[in-house]
Amino acid sequence: MTNKRSKATTSRRKCRKAHFGSSSHIRRKMMSAPLSKELRQKHSIRAMPIRKDDEVTVVRGTNKGGAQGSKVIAVYRKRWVIHIDKIQRDRANGITAKVGIHPSNVIITKLKMTEDRKRIIERKSSAKKAGKEKGKISQKDVMDTS
Fold first, then answer.
1. Pairwise CA distance, residues 87 & 20, whole Å
2. Name one GO molecular function term (predicted).
3. Which of 10, 59, 99, 109 is the most exposed place for a label (fewest CB within 10 A)?
């Protein structure tokens, strides 16, 4: 199958290089996490870039269910992980270390609201509503024309 977008590549090598070599402001967007069902209904958006002080629940991986309603204490963009306050492990020398978790393995249960985030949510939800108004042709619309 040919690539329909002239500027985009389908090469695995190039896509991996673009992903792992991406800059911090692009990684922020890629390190998004889905919202909980309640937040999804409230804000009419599906996912948000994760940030410090958001509350999350781990839903996949070895730490699944262990940290419900935990706060994000750090977003480590260089390593593609977030650190959560309730998930730590003991190292051999006795020090407790934070365990890195990929943002796709958590859901956001409570957002830290700032003015910037309110604007982002407003923009994303209004775009989604505008898309619904534009709408796709349904089976019902096709039946009405005949």
1. 25
2. RNA binding
3. 10
**Assigned token pair, 141:** 């619309």
User: What pLDDT digit, counting tens, does each position of 110-138 carry?
Assistant: 999 999 999 999 999 888 777 766 666 77
Give, in order, the Cα–Cα distances in Å from 30 to each of 95, 116, 125. 31, 18, 19
In whole angstroms, give the CA distance from residue 9 to residue 93. 47
Largest CA distance in the chain: 76
Contacts of 25 (CB under 8 A, 6+ apart): none
Residue 37 exposed, middle or buried by CB count within 10 Å (0-12, 13-18, 19+): exposed
CA atoms of 4 and 9, how far apart (whole Å) = 10
Q: Which of 105, 110, 95, 118 is nearest to 36 (CA)?
A: 110
**Which residues pair with residue 91 across a beta bridge?**
none
5-63 confidence digits (pLDDT tens): 677 888 999 999 999 999 999 999 999 999 999 999 999 999 999 999 999 999 999 98
Which residues, listed in sequence order, are joined to residue 106 by a DSSP beta bridge? 58
DSSP 138: P
